[in-house]
Amino acid sequence: MARILVTDGMDQEAVKELKNLGHEVVEKHFEVEDLKEQVKNFDALVVRSATKIRKEIIDAAKETDNLKLIVRAGVGLDNIDVSYAEENGIIVSNTPKASSSAVAELAIGHMFSLARNIYIANVTMRNGEWNKKQYKGIELSGKTLGLVGFGRISKETAKRASALGMKILYTNRSGAKEGYDEYSYVSMEELLKKSDFISLHVPFNKEKGALIGENEFNMMKDGVYLVNLARGGVVDEKALLKALDSGKVAAAAVDVFEKEPTENKELYTHKRVSLTPHIGASTKEAQARIGKEVIEKIKKNLDRRTADVCC
Description:
Elements: E1 3-6, H1 12-20, E2 24-27, H2 32-38, E3 44-47, H3 55-62, E4 69-72, H4 82-87, E5 91-94, H5 100-115, H6 118-126, E6 144-148, H7 152-163, E7 167-171, E8 184-185, H8 188-194, E9 197-200, H9 214-219, E10 224-228, H10 237-246, E11 249-254, H11 265-268, E12 273-275, H12 284-310
Parallel strand pairs: 1-2, 1-3, 3-4, 4-5, 6-7, 6-9, 7-8, 9-10, 10-11, 11-12
Helix pairs in contact: 1-12, 2-3, 5-7
């Protein structure tokens, strides 16, 4: 059967099932130079966001031509050079369904944290401060939430926010979606101008750069709240800091960063930023679902391909 390298961790029940299916599973993270050597010895790679599969890794894999499948255990594929891999006969897949609820719940959690000052009150109370009068918050009910992008995660976020009494606006590069008439499709500019909260649910486009920069911040309401659980780079961190310092952005929630682990001390120590270390999909339930979906991808793409070659 196949040799599978899992570089960024995976649900242990899924690992056991893969082994029960007869596969050899190696769970170990390798830095780039070591990965270039190791990848030659495996039929499949399972990665999350930490491992970057670029041209040099794919070129190394082609030296033995063993690598047949790369599975991103998560939603985005921006850490994999998909086109180059497929040009070289390597199937690339992901698990888009498994983590939508987990990320949506974290987005809502961050909105509550921002609205009620939970993120900063937790810090100051640990320092012995009792800042009750300083932490007058706002309610989510009645506020307008603008969703940039309207894929699976965004739709799950809309469902939860709507249940809290929020008005939902969304913008999407493919236009309005059928079956979501309870939400309002608007242009990007209108969304930026009208939203009290803005939550981002789009991939990072390296060629175009940040989607939210100084111009976009200038269009927003004064005192807007920004939530980014999408990808580092979608928001220009320097522009965000400027908007926070000016009061244009009342507070921001950031789960993803331009560089991870982040070295932007000015951002991660800012008093109006709620932080998490890229944990959108990090729930027991989501990781179990991801593991099951990874197994299905291997059964569909790797086991079938192996059978076609050998029989």
